[in-house]
Design goal:
heterodimer; A: six-stranded mixed β-sheet; four-stranded antiparallel β-sheet; 0% helix; globular; B: four-stranded antiparallel β-sheet; 11 strands; 53% strand
């Protein structure tokens, strides 16, 4: 079974600053994907970024980038130039094809507050 | 292009009743997943439907069931409701489920059991 751990229940950052959210995971699979999802107070779960495990290059999406350390099983999210709209719960998740199932395994989440 | 839609937005039931939640996937997506987000328990996988068949279920009792229709929309039924079933139920869809595909989520249905 896969596990995903987010060790920071809450974080805050000043507007326009940079913040990094941590995530570690545990899997014996070779082929898997990792995701960061954002859930604002409106509760809609929004995809932020995706990383395929077979790719060595870290994924980036505008102000969002990841630091994927496969050997260390670490997958952190960096948010640059933080904006008020980034205030949300952030969930790290893994997806693998173990036993023919494709469910996401989520961490407990990190509540990020962007302070004006 | 429309995203995943869910109805109703909110649902209030009493213990012992049945609840029916609905989900329409993104056009072209054939896989639908249901997750429960309960306070203090995080997000837990409930059910996965692909091509009209139930492919996998999480660690939930049989009173949680559902189905997928020919148009790939899905229904989640919760029978004999218990207070601890109060949660946000999220539906997600992806392209054909036999591969690692990104899951896109709907806005959720908030179920409150009194």
């Amino acid at each position: 079974a896969q596990t995903v751990t987010q060790s920071q229940p809450e974080m805050s950052v000043q507007e326009a600053e940079t913040v990094t959210l941590s995530c570690t995971y545990d899997t014996s699979e070779n082929n898997y994907y990792l995701f960061w999802y954002k859930q604002p107070p409106s509760r809609q779960m929004i995809l932020v970024i995706r990383q395929e495990a077979y790719k060595q290059q870290n994924a980036t999406e505008n102000r969002f980038s990841v630091n994927f350390q496969k050997a260390a099983k670490s997958f952190s999210l960096k948010i640059s130039d933080s904006q008020l709209g980034d205030t949300a719960m952030y969930f790290c998740a893994s997806l693998y094809s173990g036993a023919g199932s494709y469910q996401l395994t989520f961490g407990k989440g990190t509540k990020l507050s962007v302070i004006p | 292009e429309a995203g995943v839609t869910q109805s109703p937005t909110h649902l209030i039931k009493t213990r012992g009743q049945q609840a029916t939640l609905r989900c329409s996937p993104i056009s072209g997506h054939t896989s639908v997943y249901w997750y429960q987000q309960a306070l203090g328990l995080g997000l837990q996988f409930l059910l996965w439907y692909d091509e009209g068949e139930e492919r996998n279920r999480g660690n939930f009792p049989p009173r949680f069931s559902g189905r997928q229709f020919p148009n790939y929309s899905s229904e989640l039924n919760v029978n004999a409701l218990e207070l601890e079933d109060s949660a946000l139920y999220l539906c997600a869809s992806s392209l054909a489920g036999r591969g690692l595909e990104t899951q896109y989520f709907g806005p959720g249905t908030r179920l409150l059991v009194l």
